Each structure stands twice: as structure tokens, then as C-alpha cells.
Amino acid sequence: RDSIDLNYDFELSFRIWLGTGSGADAGMAFVLQKAGIYAVGSNPVASLGYYDAKATFDQSVAIELDMNNSGAGAPWYDPAGPHISFVKNGSAMPVSGPFPLNLSKGNFIYKFTWDHAAHKLSLYQDGVLLGTMSEDVVNTVFGGRSKAIFGFTTSSSSASTIQMVDILTGN
What we know:
globular, 1 helix
């Protein structure tokens, strides 16, 4: 299953390896979007694969798990260390966050949840809430359509970095 109906609550759990945390890695983004596999633009190596100017994430919500400080303020809005931010429609400007991301070890269990009644998207790392975004995304992002495709984008500025996702559960 690669789509979610946002008229219902969901919970998805993944084991995520973000690489070494050495600063050479960009990170990844968990994305809810409408365009399918063709959303990633011509340069998925740049900008977590989500912010490429040729990508078509114009109707999307993403949680970036960012290991780099690409610079405070426009266009990246990054704090000094690893962080998560909730973003939408291909823009790097946070809708919620940034929130600190603990990368003391490389392998974590992440849980992404959607509370339909509260219009709240949340991210947990090893059972600890990292951050939330509250918005009626069905209407403000997806034009009233409740079904969205989920997946990950990723990138690295290092040729030797490995970043992996292992799907654990979903409902």
C-alpha cells in the first residue's frame, strides 16, 4: 500500500538509518503527495530530493529529517544542528519547527501519525514526540481530495553515504 486516506487516522512506523551524521549527509523527507513516483525532479541528489526546482511537489506535506545546516533564513531556514521541520508544497519554509533531531546513534524507529479529527500530523523518534503540524491539509494542500501517496525522498552530498528505510507497521 502506498496511499493513505486522510479522512481516517493513520500510523506508520519505520526503522530509518540516516547515515553517519558527519555533516556530509543531507537527510531525507517523509512525503504525502499527489503526483506519485514522477514527482521527483531531474536532480534528486540535491536538497533532500524534495526541494528540487524541477520536482512537482506542489500539492504535498513533508517532514524533513535534515542532518545539514544549509543556512539560516531563506531559502533553507536551517538551525545549527540536525533537525526536523514540517513543510509543504515543495517549500523549505517550515510550517512547524524546526525541532532538534537526536542523532547520537544512526538507527531509529520513527512513527508518523495523522489524527483526522484534530488535523494533526506528528512524528515520534523511538517513542518520543519530536514535533507536530496542525492544519486541515485535505482542504488547504490537497484541494479537498483525501487520498495521498506516501513515500520518502533522500539525498546526500557524499558518494559513500547509505540511507535506508525499513517499513515496520502501518494501519
